[in-house]
Design a protein that fits this description.
By secondary structure, the chain is mostly helical. The chain binds protoporphyrin IX containing FE. The site of protoporphyrin IX containing FE has 23 residues, from helix 4, helix 5 and helix 7.
């Protein structure tokens, strides 16, 4: 009987230890690149990013392939978080206060094709604002690896 209780306690302790293990780590959604600070200037700083995200959201909502994703969400929140995220990535003095990229997209099903369409729409928005191609590509190069967390089907 004694042994039995000891075994149960051991099993319980093992289970508790297992539960206390940290979850698998998700990559930082907003890694800072101080060397890209000049690129942020080409985007017009934080105000330029804010204007860009306003345009980008309108383009997404006007694109039937993307509207399905963005019609129902808090668009102002998404725009605000994107401004913060891009500002930090481009070495700005900003803070990203949003979710990680797995969590942010867990409620929707995103394919590789969807990812490419969103990037296309972002390029249209950047072109319309006259962001130089090289600056566009420097941002896109930092966003591209995030496809691993965003694409979930
Ligand atoms: C590199 C690519 C992407 C980046 C950097 C990105 C970034 C973000 C960020 C920062 C948020 C806000 C997180 C928060 O609320 O805390 C967000 C939300 C969202 N994203 Fe993305 N995203 C990307 C790709 C995509 C794609 C391809 C889709 C779908 C086609 C998508 C659809 C959404 C939707 C619908 C939300 C709002 C979710 C909700 O409020 O429930 N995203 N994304």
């Amino acid at each position: 009987m004694r042994l039995h209780t000891a075994t149960l306690l051991l099993l319980l302790a093992t289970a508790m230890t297992a539960r206390a293990e940290p979850a698998a780590t998700v990559p930082n959604p907003a890694p800072a690149h101080p060397e890209l600070r000049d690129v942020l200037d080409e985007f017009g700083g934080k105000p330029g990013l804010t204007a860009l995200m306003d345009d980008f959201m309108l383009i997404l909502l006007d694109d039937p392939r993307m509207a399905v994703f963005f019609e129902q969400v808090d668009q102002q929140r998404v725009k605000d978080k994107l401004v913060e995220q891009f500002c930090v990535i481009l070495g700005g003095d900003c803070e990203y206060t949003g979710m990680d990229m797995v969590e942010a997209h867990a409620g929707i099903e995103v394919t590789h094709a969807d990812f490419n369409i969103l990037v296309e729409d972002l390029q249209i928005a950047m072109d319309r604002r006259g962001i130089p191609t090289r600056a566009q590509n420097q941002l896109l190069a930092k966003l591209a690896p995030m496809h691993r967390e965003v694409i979930n089907r």
